[in-house]
Amino acid sequence: MTASKSTEELTRVVIRFAGDSGDGMQLTGDRFTQETADFGNDLSTLPNFPAEIRAPAGTLPGVSSFQIHFADYDILTPGDHPDVLIAMNPAALKANIGDLQAGGTAIVDAHEFTDRNLKRVGYESNPLEDGSLSDYQLHAIDLTGLTVGAVEEFGLSRKDASRAKNMFALGLVSWMFGRPIDGSIAFLGKKFAGAPAIRDANVAALRTGYNYGETTESFAVSYVVKPAVIPSGRYRNITGNTALSYGIVAAGQLSGLQVFLGAYPITPASDILHELSKHKAFGVTTFQAEDEIAGVGAALGASFAGSLGVTTTSGPGLALKGETIGLGVMLELPLVVIDVQRGGPSTGLPTKTEQSDLLQAMNGRNGEAPVPVVAAQSPADCFDAAIEAARIAITYRTPVILLSDGYLANGSEPWSLPDVESLPRIEPGFATADPDTTFLPYARDPQTLARPWAPPGIAGLEHRIGGLEKADGTGDISYDPANHDHMVRLRQAKVDGIAASIPEVEVDDPDGHAKILVIGWGSTYGPIGAGCRRARLAGHRIAQAHLRHLNPFPANLGEVLAAYDRVIVPEMNLGQLRSLLRATYLVDAEGYNAVRGMPFGAAELGQHFIELCIKEGE
Amino acid sequence: MSVDLGMPQGHGLEGVPTADGPQTRKDFSSDQEVRWCPGCGDYAILAAVQGFMPELGLRRENIVFISGIGCAARFPYYLDTYGLHSIHGRAPAIATGIATTRADLSVWVVTGDGDALSIGGNHLIHALRRNVNMTILLFNNRIYGLTKGQYSPTSEPGKVTKSTPFGSIDAPLNPLSLALGAEATFVARTIDSDRKHLTAVLSAAARHRGTSLVEIYQNCPIFNDGAFDAIKDPETRDDAIIPLVHGEPIRFGADGRLGVVRTPGGGVDIVEVDESNAGDVLVHDAHATDATTAFALSRITDGGAVRRAPIGVFRQVERPTYDDLSREQSVLAGEAPSLQALLDGPDAWTVA
Known about the structure:
Chain A is α/β, with parallel strands linked by helices. Chain A has 20 helices and 23 strands. Chain A is globular. In chain A, 57% of the residues are buried. By secondary structure, chain B is an alpha/beta fold. Chain B has a single domain (25-248, 284-344), classed as Rossmann fold (3-Layer(aba) Sandwich). Helices cover 27% and strands 18% of the residues of chain B. Chain B has 11 helices and 12 strands. In chain B, the strands form 2 sheets. An 8-stranded mixed sheet of chain B has the order 2-1-3-4-6-5-11-7, sandwiched between helices. Chain B has a 3-stranded antiparallel sheet with strand order 8-9-10. The longest helix of chain B has 16 residues, at 41-56. Chain B is globular and about 90 Å long. The interface between A and B is large, with 71 and 58 residues. Chain A: One of its GO terms (biological process) is response to oxidative stress.
């Protein structure tokens, strides 16, 4: 008998899957995300996991979660507070219940709520029974028991059988929100192709979870979130690290250069190394170096030899690479340095996000060593940001630092797929030999101030370069004071001149009369935008601008800043962009800063903006 | 007359284009003024390299010299090839990027005992175990010269220098023992002042496919003069230098009165040779798969003042190189699908 169930329409939902780091929550979240993308909602995701690979089971440090926000309109963030929390054990409940929306739905695996497990995380009594969850719609279900029962016929051990409980949970939540599960069934078929019993058990658990929602009386309502109205085109869901990797592959294709990645594994950048190592057919060579220094050194060597040298890292690795980046500044060779920022200082919070490497990127080298800095603003935007970093590196013969962060790296969103034919080509413009003139390795292109790029192999262009100061033009070693002063200024002028090739910063100021400008960079784009929307919905005027280029700044930035009474700079650091803006433009920029390892919430920023607007009478 | 080291003609230079016509030493001299101290051993090494390059017969533009920091690191400026004077200790890493991306280049690293064994020790051992096709010339003068006279990782214990007024308390490294321990496929030693031997070793090193490590004893007349007197002084050198020639018994001293024999413990020892024990003298096998004997030979030179030193090729074995394997994987990857197909992926959807 099938109960007749009612449906309720919602415009947006935030769901968080939480469990032990061994419970497969990231996989569950990924699958739900793909189902949601297939269904046509706009979405944004935020994985959150511990640095420990398998922290002791059932403990608070071992909790891993995956949050997805989806809606029938375009959304900008993975959401502040979940409407639905799936908690696979007491630790996951305890770590996440505080974030659940009042009146929200908590689905828990009651099987795990044993005295021992409760005690382990400090629950004095069972929250499923003591009334402490009365503010929520609680569904205490024996997910483990139901899963084991559903997969009995496949002859798995109890342990293996119970591991499919994440698929049961996925099935149940998929039913609740009308997600199609065919894609996930196909995915499981492929993933466990070599282990038919496990494949069949997972598929059975998924289906049983779905059917459980449909038949059990405790779930009276399912929800409908209609597909979003988004611009026509082809889309796929993508994480920042994958988009960034594809950007690098594309940069190689667009420039006709071989790509050489020298990298040392580091969280949260390693997935770029993993992804790029698959693409040898696209002329990408990856080298897992003995350390961060060797990674960037080999990349710079490859650039000297005529490839596009790339290195990937996070904050601690950027610190180690500083000397080699300085050599790149002196050698004036293309080099793309990707810093996927994480919480610092030192080892800090390896799996959490932060924006605190901006000043390191700007200044983390000895001497006057200007380096262009580019930042990505959303997971899909990492693709464009990587191509832009490569364009600057190749065109201007310079190291470029590309800043991403842990939130962009692991978060995902739908990506409007570019038409490859429409992507701009990048011209390496290698030097050619002219028998009538002496080759000057430090001659300059009058427009870009770039020097010739002359990889070995061309007769007549033999030259020696190094980290010692160069004589202008010849590139010979020079200790001449006037020459050094000239060269320091020349290198600075070259980087400053890049501003001529980048777009002006655009301001989103709906009626053009706002007095307050909010300006940000990097992954705060979504939360700032969502915060501004909230302020505007509440009837306030507020303008938003976001910087792709941190060095040099867009040519019109000073004018833009001067046009507003107040300039607000939200950052996941203690005010690094704010310092640069104040120093560069003498503008009294105000910060809004938090370093909690998590992105800003839309509500938090919205509230802050509204308070500012009220104060300003906006 | 050249020195015969008993080495095979290796294929280390395969893939590097050869010159159209004969070259001279002048072709390899750059227009830069050489700025080492008078009497520095580096002059002799530079002269030997410039003199030996035409023998290799490679196109000049396909030769790259990479160095780190130190006196030796100025070397690339004086050769009219492509050159890169980089940062302290990192030359092997930079060279790895060059060698891996360009099969058509002959890649040389010039380094010193401080550059290679102290600040750059990590890169050296990893280049050796990867067996990247490059030749590393390690100028060992057992002192820091460019920073004006501090002890180095190869200085003898007790050495009094500016930074060790009461004597060094550091235990030194033996560069060749280190290289052998790091799985090096070509390990050799030669001397700055013996041009013929130096040339023969460099020739064998360049032709070896893989990482060749050549330790060159090099005198620093300013901060460590006489460090190698025992093997340079005509009075003592015959009993101090132990020439290694593949396939030959290891004998030295006037009329070969001394020889190297195995000890029961697995090491080697030096004995006076007469008819009764001539058959016990070790026959040098540079190509032995097992590096144990090469290691034992490297231990003849202890960490103190140089009194005895084998010179020649300690070890030369064939092992696939990192750069060849990397390029092979790229070839096996075949034709790329379209970039559009990569970006689209398997799960794209269309919004009308």
